[in-house]
Hints:
Blueprint: H1 2-5, H2 8-26, H3 39-49, H4 65-79, H5 83-96, H6 101-113, H7 117-130, H8 136-150, H9 163-172
Helix pairs in contact: 3-8, 4-5, 5-6, 6-7, 6-8, 7-8, 8-9
Amino acid sequence: MIRWFTTPRWSGVAAGVALAILLAGCATAPDIGLPGFDAAAAVAEIRAAGGANASELDVQPLRDPQVEDLREDAERLERERKYPEAAAALDQALQLNPSDPALLQDRAEAALLQQRLDDAERFARQGLEQGSKVGPLCRRHWETIAQVRLTRPASADTPGGSVADARRERDACTVAAPPRY
């Protein structure tokens, strides 16, 4: 029986099967989050955390019309629950403006809806690096990080801190607007 696999015809097949098994072991599994994780509810909490109030400082940059068209496409696709397509539209927008913190946050939320938790945290952190450290967008960044941390087992060695740490940072983003005379 062993001799059967050592013939030239079968050794090529065996090598092909071995290569396929080896390559399958090298493939990375998609970051699909936790079973039972409600991504839509998490994104709703993030957006609620970013709600501005009238007595708060909130600076909004001018928007590129081409980027805005892609954002609107992404919003429509998200409403249709076409999350991969929404993420692709945001990726196109990021190619045009890779340092837009609001766009990075939108992409973080799209990643969360796809249950790509590591990507969601990475985009939120990039948004924090590029953007303001105060205001509604800052709170959305930190709440995204908190939502990702909620999915992970609590331990003393959680990289980057705890959920409570992220929520403290989120709350510190609220700054009163300067007095107007």
